[in-house]
């Protein structure tokens, strides 16, 4: 299962792009699952170190749903709106809370492929910084970042929404980069699957 995490609190541009991404992966024969921060109760990591004993996060909220999904996932997609040149606060809180997962099983994400999607309202509003933030998170936690490569998707998929759903739907260059990234990502997953 490929897990797509959506960092937008709205059913708008980022969710649309992530749903399109998962559809592309399903067309390539992969099972997917979307988890969104939208409507969820998400507390901040308070560095209580309660998780370091390996018993999980002490904060009982909706982030608890994410831990088993992350464990089960064979690949990870983080899609976030750009907020002040980085990922949304909701997405960052989820990233921080995965410390509890890694504390109980340091290998739970290791070697899994990950791709990054950033959706900004401005053409150059910090998408590359948000993509970099996601790929830094991947690096720290042992996830292998996959982009679509040069000529369109250097660091992952970057979108310009013009702050609207219609805007992101019309971002042909964004979708071109997304298709390149999805292609590499799914080819990598297929190579990892055992022969039947
Ligand atoms: C608090 C906040 C900060 C934002 N900061 C940026 C920014 O730094 N750069 C940018 O391009 N857009 C910024 N935006 C605009 C959103 O990234 C843009 O509207 C995006 O499409 C929102 O995604 P959504 O439609 O999935 O909610 C910001 C929006 C909010 C609410």
Question: Outline of this structure?
Answer:
By secondary structure, the chain is an alpha/beta fold.
CATH architecture: 3-Layer(aba) Sandwich
Bound ligands, named by name, code or SMILES: flavin mononucleotide
CATH topology: Rossmann fold
Q: Point out poorly predicted stretches.
A: none
Q: Mind describing the biggest β-sheet? A: 6 strands, parallel
Care to count the β-strands? Answer: 6
**CATH class wording:** Alpha Beta
Approximate strand percentage: 15-25%
Number of helices: 7
Fourth-level CATH superfamily = Flavodoxin domain
Task: Give the topology string: H per helix, E per strand.
Answer: EHEHEHHEHEEHH
Kindly state the percentage of residues in helix. Answer: 25-40%
Radius of gyration over all CA atoms, rounded:
16 Å
Span between termini: 17 Å
What does this structure look like?
The protein has 196 residues and is an alpha/beta fold. The protein has a single domain, classed as Rossmann fold (3-Layer(aba) Sandwich), CATH 3.40.50. The chain is 39% helix and 16% strand. It has seven helices and six strands; from the N terminus they run βαβαβααβαββαα. The chain has helices at residues 13-27, 66-72, 89-97, 99-104, 127-140, 165-169, 172-192, and strands at 2-6, 32-36, 75-81, 113-120, 144-145, 157-160. Strands 1, 2, 3, 4, 5 and 6 form a six-stranded parallel beta sheet that branches. Helix 1 (13-27) crosses helix 7 (172-192). The longest helix has 21 residues, at 172-192. The chain is globular, with a radius of gyration of 16 Å. It starts with a strand and ends with a helix. Bound molecules: flavin mononucleotide.
């Amino acid at each position: 299962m490929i897990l797509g995490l959506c960092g937008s609190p709205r059913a708008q541009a980022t969710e649309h792009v992530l749903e399109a991404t998962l559809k592309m992966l399903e067309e390539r024969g992969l099972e997917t699952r979307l988890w969104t921060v939208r409507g969820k109760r998400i507390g901040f990591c308070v560095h209580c170190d309660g998780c370091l004993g390996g018993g999980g996060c002490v904060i009982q909220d909706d982030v608890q749903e994410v831990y088993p999904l992350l464990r089960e996932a064979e690949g990870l997609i983080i899609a976030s709106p750009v907020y002040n040149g980085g990922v949304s606060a909701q997405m960052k809180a989820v990233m921080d809370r995965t410390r509890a997962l890694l504390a109980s099983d340091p290998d739970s994400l290791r070697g899994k492929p990950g791709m990054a999607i950033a959706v900004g309202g401005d053409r150059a509003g910090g998408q590359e910084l948000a993509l970099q933030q996601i790929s830094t998170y991947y690096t720290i936690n042992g996830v292998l970042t996959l982009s679509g490569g040069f000529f369109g998707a250097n660091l992952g998929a970057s979108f310009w929404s013009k702050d609207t759903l219609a805007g992101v739907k019309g971002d042909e260059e964004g979708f071109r980069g997304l298709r390149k990234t999805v292609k590499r990502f799914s080819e990598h997953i297929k190579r990892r699957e055992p022969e039947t």
